[in-house]
Amino acid sequence: MAVQSSFKNMTLCLFAVCLVASALLAAVYAITKEPIEVAEHNKTISAIAQVVPEFEGEPVSDTIEVSGRKYPYYVVSKGGQPVGYAINTSSVGYGGPLSLMVGMTADRVIYNTTVLSQSETPGLGAKCVEPEFADQFRNWNPEEKTLAVTKDGGDVDAITASTITSRAYSKAVETAVTVFDAIVSINKGE
Amino acid sequence: MRKFQLITKGFVKENPTFSLLLGMCPTLATTTSAINGMSMGLATLFVLVLSNMAISATAPYIPDKVRIPAYIVIIAAFVTILQFVMQAFTPDIYKTLGLFIPLIVVNCIVLGRAEAFANKNSVLDSACDGLGIGIGFTFALTLLGLVREILGSGSAFNWKFIDGDGILVFVLAPGAFMALAYLIVLFKKVTSGKGE
Amino acid sequence: MEYILIIISAIFVNNILLSQFMGICPFLGVSNKLSTATGMSGAVCFVITLATLVTYLFQYYVLVPLHIEFMQTIAFILIIAALVQMVEIVLKKVSPALYQALGIFLPLITTNCAVLGVALMVVTNEFTYGGAEPHKLNLGESVVFAFATSLGFGLAMILFAGLREQIALNKVPKPFKGIPIALVTASILAMAFMGFSGLV
């Protein structure tokens, strides 16, 4: 049966349990720190690889500030020439933030897009991750087509019954184009 | 034999979800698909077995009055370990289950087994008990997830068998309550017909 | 303006019980009678707000500066358990009447996942209101969020208890007696709350 409780052994015991637990956690933390970073890195890399054309070497990451907001982006190159830009933008959907990785080729055409995180309604807005919707942004030239849902006079076919999500998606892609222009203009200035 | 009974009792007789109605939060929240339900069940199983063993081993040395805080610390430590391991090796599942992984700490099943079984039984028995209850929980969550997935998205274990959508409401919050209600009724019917 | 959006969102749109599924145990366990449901809601309201305030400060003034964020889960649950104990002792001394009303619910609250859930949510999740860019909540917003969430908890709890009191007077098929019919009721209540989605 359990030990008789006294103030001394209670404090001692709780202290010991906490100490052992924290030591154990610190150890596991140290061991898993690297795999966690690798897993996160791989995830970003695979998201980038999905949205830009074929490239060589590692994507170069950077951030840029456009109208008071910071956007992380990644430049990929092939044969020493930058061939694509993967830009991380977000907007507000129906259920919460919608975060995208938008890939642009060097000639200002959207190569592909992928959803990094979303909290849209399953079966409705959450369909934005499916190719039926997302694939329409492949090879989208913002000069020829407008990034807004058809209801708002644009060229994006909205998901049925999920106009808000579709709008948010278009908005995030549109932001990426703006960010792309900012990146290019900075590079030209240098 | 006893060990075998310890493992199987969690399946039907002491099924934590259908007959004891414990751990309802993850049960309802994470069962949007069979895979999600199963992942949550396995995550809980992992914590349950390890915390049961640790508590059974340390119980004789812990003064009675501080046993609950001590158990909570032990459970929380294993939950955090689980978080790290999942983040490192199954980041997608970790992201889907989200907040409900740290919330295993306050899952009444885990603390309940510590209090009701682990602190007065041997380490091996406690491990079997944790395994049994964990399997029962995993089974229940997978079943609920499967039912909701079949009805809600027309697929089973991500294998789609109809075109288009299912009855969407089953993937959403109301469907969770409804599906669980009917599963409990079914479970009651089946077990009462057999047992008495 | 943002505070109003936080409040509406936490009470109606993202109701902690009916759309986030946190704190279901007391929701099913102590909702038989309206009076106990009210008592539980009051106690939860008190503890969630206080716990979120303390855990928020602990996260940003202890865990982050010391780079021991990995102790988060353990630290938070211990803080909550200690707070609940403290509230119990203080309440007993200061207001015996309130203690009478809330006292028996307090020990149950430590394992109410809504408390730990909200505490973790404000430090890990990013929120967005009224089209603003997603961001972590600051101290004031966190406390308002926690308080509003607990109001949402109370609202759902009291509505549900009222419904269950009515159901108890009616004939229910035998296998549905008790929890199953309560779950069906909760399902319909959740459907009603779905009508609020998209409001914020």
In the residues of chain B, how many domains can be counted?
1
Count of individual helical segments of chain B:
8
Low-confidence stretches of chain C: none
Strand content of chain B: under 5%
Mean pLDDT value of chain C? 86
End-to-end Cα distance of chain B: 24 Å
Helix content of chain B: 55-70%
H and E order of chain C: HHHHHHHHH
Task: Name the largest protein-protein interface in this structure.
Answer: B-C, 41 and 42 residues
| Major sheet of chain C | none
Rg over CA atoms of chain B: 17 Å
Q: Please tell me what the overall shape of chain C is.
A: globular
Strand element count of chain B? 2
- Derived from helix and strand composition plus strand pairing, the structural class of chain C reads mainly alpha
Describe this structure in a few short sentences.
The complex is a heterotrimer of chains A (190), B (196) and C (200). With 190 residues, chain A is α+β, with helices and mostly antiparallel strands.
Tell me the layout of helices and strands.
The complex is a heterotrimer of chains A (190), B (196) and C (200).
Chain A: H1 7-51, E1 56-66, E2 69-78, E3 81-92, E4 97-105, E5 110-117, H2 131-134, H3 163-189
Antiparallel strand pairs in A: 1-2, 2-3, 3-4, 4-5
Chain B: H1 2-9, H2 24-29, H3 34-58, H4 67-89, H5 91-97, H6 108-116, H7 123-153, E1 155-156, E2 159-160, H8 173-195
Antiparallel strand pairs in B: 1-2
Helix pairs in contact in B: 1-7, 3-4, 3-6, 3-7, 4-5, 4-6, 7-8
Chain C: H1 2-13, H2 24-29, H3 34-66, H4 72-94, H5 96-102, H6 106-109, H7 113-124, H8 139-168, H9 179-194
Jot down its keywords:
heterotrimer; A: 190 residues; five-stranded antiparallel beta sheet; C: 200 residues
Provide an overview of this structure:
The complex is a heterotrimer of chains A (190), B (196) and C (200). With 190 residues, chain A is α+β, with helices and mostly antiparallel strands. Chain A has helices spanning 7-51, 131-134, 163-189, and strands spanning 56-66, 69-78, 81-92, 97-105, 110-117. Chain A has a 5-stranded antiparallel β-sheet, sandwiched between helices. The radius of gyration of chain A is 23 Å and the shape is elongated. By secondary structure, chain B is mostly helical. In chain B, 67% of the residues lie in helices and 2% in strands. Chain B has a two-stranded antiparallel sheet with strand order 1-2. Chain B is globular and about 60 Å long. Chain C has one domain (2-194). Chain C has 9 helices and no strands. Chain C has helices spanning 2-13, 24-29, 34-66, 72-94, 96-102, 106-109, 113-124, 139-168, 179-194. Chain C starts with a helix and ends in a 6-residue tail after the last helix. In chain C, 47% of the residues are buried. Classes of the chains: A alpha+beta (190), B mainly alpha (196), C mainly alpha (200).
